[in-house]
Task: inverse folding
């Protein structure tokens, strides 16, 4: 009886959290907050971006500079802000000196004399992380050439790729991707990926609208969706790191990242990219079962 009362209390508290957070209905999805509660989920964290100015510092940190994948953009705080109920991450053309520049350096971050593009990447590392749950983001992406927006997770323990990566939403070079990666036998990332040509989804008309991306992650599998269409499902038993350690990086908490990258190893050439361009996010929500 005590266990039943605890579950009932958790579900009741979950309904209070939903009401107090001012959550809007899940647009573009057949699911509603009520339906989520009916499946046993309760809201444990959300950012609705209902503020003006910088994203909530209690939720988000910033990546800075040239970070990964030979990408073209320099990450800076100035390109992320909240307005009209949205988080806006903007890509811009720039002409700035690279403070890291070293003549003759073999490091891609240091051999560039100038910063030609800027954008933002924000993350919850050190502030919020979760193991298992339903993760939901409503957003709109620009699918122009050279752009590489993403909503993804990384494990809190271990170095990449041994810490695990989940790309709930990733776009580049005309493709929408749904990826999960762990450490492969060659010490490189072992990818479990599905890709979808955006023309098959509706092309520019599809991209002009907001869509709902979702991850359902539990102790058995990771499922990735857009607008309730299943994009990828990977069983956790497959995701043990292939280094003999027996570590499964998806049986640990992960933190969230939202970023707009450009160019680099996957984004493609930048010669036809329009500026400014935006990745807009209506909300990010995390649900868990008690």
Result:
């Amino acid at each position: 009886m005590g266990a039943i009362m605890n579950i009932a209390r958790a579900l009741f508290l979950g309904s209070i959290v939903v009401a107090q957070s001012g959550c809007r209905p899940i647009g573009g999805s057949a699911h509603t907050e009520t339906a989520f509660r009916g499946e046993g989920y309760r809201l444990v964290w959300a950012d609705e971006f209902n503020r003006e100015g910088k994203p909530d510092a209690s939720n988000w940190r910033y990546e800075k500079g040239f970070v990964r994948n030979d990408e073209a953009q320099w990450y800076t705080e100035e390109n992320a802000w909240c307005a009209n109920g949205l988080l806006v991450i903007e890509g811009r053309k720039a002409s700035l000196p690279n403070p890291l520049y070293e003549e003759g350096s073999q490091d891609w971050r240091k051999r560039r004399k100038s910063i030609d593009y800027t954008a933002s990447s924000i993350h919850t590392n050190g502030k919020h992380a979760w193991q298992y749950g339903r993760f939901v983001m409503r957003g709109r992406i620009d699918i122009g050439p050279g752009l590489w927006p993403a909503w993804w997770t990384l494990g809190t323990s271990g170095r990449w790729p041994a810490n695990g990566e989940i790309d709930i939403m990733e776009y580049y070079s005309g493709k929408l991707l749904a990826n999960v990666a762990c450490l492969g036998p060659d010490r490189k990332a072992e990818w479990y990926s599905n890709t979808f040509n955006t023309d098959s989804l509706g092309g520019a008309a599809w991209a002009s609208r907001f869509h709902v991306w979702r991850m359902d992650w539990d102790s058995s599998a990771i499922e990735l969706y857009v607008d309730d269409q299943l994009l990828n499902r990977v069983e956790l038993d497959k995701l043990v790191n292939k280094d003999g350690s027996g570590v499964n990086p998806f049986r640990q908490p992960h933190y969230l990242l939202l970023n707009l990258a450009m160019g680099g190893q996957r984004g493609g050439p930048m010669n036809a990219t329009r500026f400014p361009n935006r990745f807009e996010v209506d909300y990010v929500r995390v649900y868990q079962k008690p």
Q: What stands out?
A: The domain at 2-288 is CATH 2.60.120.200 (Jelly Rolls).
